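Good morning C.,

I know you're traveling, so I'll keep this short. The sequence:
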Amino acid sequence: MADHFYGAAVSAGIGPAAITKGTSTGGFPVELRVTDGTANLNKTTLLLMLRAIEGYITTDSALP
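The tokens, ready to paste straight into the viewer:
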């Protein structure tokens, strides 16, 4: 199994062109690691998991 990292710089914007994808970390302030070949993980499931993370971040008082 390989990992893919999706990274975004703080000032990069929000469009697809602002995202960097690679097989190793790019050292960005925000990164998502996805392990390829994980059982039951597909694009739909990944997007649902990202929505759950978004919901958590929205209510997290530790972030400004």
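Safe travels,
E.
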